[in-house]
């Protein structure tokens, strides 16, 4: 079976920038560098349609791999379909050890609009479409983008277990879920990852991070660079606290936000996204930024829980 995009061999050398974050074991057969790449931004306005600069999007993906990124997160709803198609165009045949994770469970009626659809027939179609676009016979990690409140949970979890039994998916993850939902899902199918919105300023899911660490489940924070929106919210004091830490290290506030996530828990697998190579390189450089005890204390009180 062709499972390229899901191997376990080291993609690159330990001196590659992304490798400086260390490794995380999503599963026994799924071990990656602890700083990945989120491919949502490789689309048009409102996460809809093609990117304004397709050539740059391709360069970003290839440069990410050169920098040692061996975990790329995407979804069928990014575009829709655009992000997955770009990944295959840029990187297939995939290097050994490169993990492509994707998600399903949303429909896209328009720019910046997301409609949950957890009906089993839709999830089956979503998975088959992702397999086709990514040119894979098996998805290493497939995540339910949301639990649809209009569909019985058991039906949704049951189809996830079906994907694994069929061999179309190796491991299952969930997104935007609490501890109780994770535990209910685990009664039906093993859960390897949880992908929730979480960053230095938004820590609503602290209990989920701690649960994932205890249970050896990878926690994949989306919107990991939330510190970038602080100033726009008029929270100057919070922005200054982050910037003060950044100045100590001659780093950017975005790098501090990523370094904080890496320090927060060994279960953390940040996936910062961008559509520009320079910004990608800046993000990956955060893998080697080590925050001090003083830094962490200064950042501890920033959260909006």
The shape is: globular
Number of helices: 10
Report helical residue fraction: 25-40%
Q: Segments where pLDDT lies below 50 for 5+ residues? A: 6-13
Highest CATH level, the class: Alpha Beta
Q: And the CATH topology?
A: TIM Barrel
What is the CA-based Rg, rounded?
A: 18 Å
The name of the CATH architecture is Alpha-Beta Barrel
SS elements, strand count: 11
Q: Order of helices and strands, N to C?
A: EEEHEHEEEHEHEHEHEHHHH
Overview of the structural elements:
It is a single chain. The chain is an alpha/beta fold and 305 residues long. It has one domain (17-225, 266-275): TIM Barrel, CATH 3.20.20. The protein contains ten helices and eleven strands. The strands form three sheets. A seven-stranded parallel beta sheet has the order 3-4-5-8-9-10-11, with helices on one face. Strand 9, helix 5 and strand 10 (191-195) form a beta-alpha-beta unit. Helix 1 crosses helix 2. It is globular and about 50 Å long. It starts with 22 loop residues before the first strand and ends in a 5-residue tail after the last helix.
In short:
The chain is 37% helix and 16% strand.
Secondary structure layout:
Layout: E1 23-27, E2 30-33, E3 37-38, H1 54-66, E4 71-73, H2 82-91, E5 99-104, E6 106-110, E7 113-116, H3 120-134, E8 139-144, H4 153-166, E9 169-175, H5 179-186, E10 191-195, H6 206-215, E11 218-219, H7 236-248, H8 253-264, H9 277-285, H10 293-300
Parallel strand pairs: 3-4, 4-5, 5-8, 8-9, 9-10, 10-11
Antiparallel strand pairs: 1-2, 6-7
């Amino acid at each position: 079976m062709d499972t390229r995009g899901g191997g376990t061999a080291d993609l690159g050398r330990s001196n590659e920038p992304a490798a400086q974050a260390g490794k995380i074991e999503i599963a026994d057969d799924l071990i990656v560098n602890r700083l990945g790449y989120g491919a949502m931004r490789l689309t048009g306005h409102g996460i809809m349609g093609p990117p304004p600069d397709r050539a740059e999007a391709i360069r970003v993906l290839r440069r990410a791999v050169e920098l040692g990124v061996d975990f790329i997160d995407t979804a069928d709803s990014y575009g829709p379909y655009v992000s997955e198609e770009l990944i295959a165009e840029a990187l297939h045949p995939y290097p050994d050890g490169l993990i492509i994770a994707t998600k399903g469970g949303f429909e896209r009626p328009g720019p910046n609009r997301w409609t949950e659809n957890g009906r089993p027939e839709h999830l089956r179609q979503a998975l088959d479409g992702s397999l086709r676009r990514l040119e894979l016979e098996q998805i290493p990690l497939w995540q339910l983008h949301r639990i649809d409140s209009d569909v019985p949970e058991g039906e949704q979890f049951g189809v996830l277990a079906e994907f694994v039994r069929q061999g179309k998916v190796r491991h299952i993850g969930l997104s935007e879920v609490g501890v109780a939902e994770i535990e209910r899902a685990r009664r039906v199918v093993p859960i390897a990852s949880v992908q929730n919105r979480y960053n230095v300023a938004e820590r609503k899911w602290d209990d989920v991070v701690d649960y994932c660490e205890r249970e050896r489940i990878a926690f994949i924070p989306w919107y990991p660079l939330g510190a970038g929106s602080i100033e726009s919210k008029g929270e100057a004091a919070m922005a200054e606290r982050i910037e003060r830490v950044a100045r100590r290290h001659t780093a950017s506030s975005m790098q501090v936000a990523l370094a904080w996530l890496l320090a927060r828990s060994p279960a953390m697998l940040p996936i910062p996204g961008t559509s520009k190579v320079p910004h990608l390189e800046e993000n990956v450089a955060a893998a080697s930024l080590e925050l001090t005890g003083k830094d962490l204390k200064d950042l501890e009180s920033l959260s909006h829980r």
